[in-house]
Fold this sequence. Notes:
Elements: E1 7-13, E2 17-22, H1 23-31, H2 42-51, E3 58-61, H3 65-75, H4 80-100, E4 103-106, H5 110-125, H6 132-140
Parallel strand pairs: 3-4
Antiparallel strand pairs: 1-2
Amino acid sequence: MAARGEFLEYARVFGKHSYGTPKKWLDESRARDLDLVLEIDVQGAAQVKQKLPEAVAIFILPPSREELERRLRSRGQDPDEEIARRLAQAREEIAASEAMYDFCVVNDDVERAGREAQAIVLALRCGSARRRGRVNQVLASFGG
């Protein structure tokens, strides 16, 4: 699929796994006038922003380095060297986040963080540019 250009974004993450978002998902959501929410890494977000500058990026970050380390260790999947590498990469990504992301949500409480992400999406849906057609309908109802 990558060779055929069928991905909106794709990346090899931590040298182990390849991930990607098929372009058809974007095409299908646009055809149905739906929002497409992607859970992607920083590499993927950079690719999406390059291809779709109007895309809105929300950076979900941990409340602290210590908490991120605790979460990584609690998975029980990675050796110490891998955790150290992930923490170093997280530091770089957080430092660079301002340049690429439109919003940041701190995931210190999953319920609140989820509500914040939902609020961002709702606010974007209500933007005047996106609602211009509906605004024009209301205006036309006034006559003139």
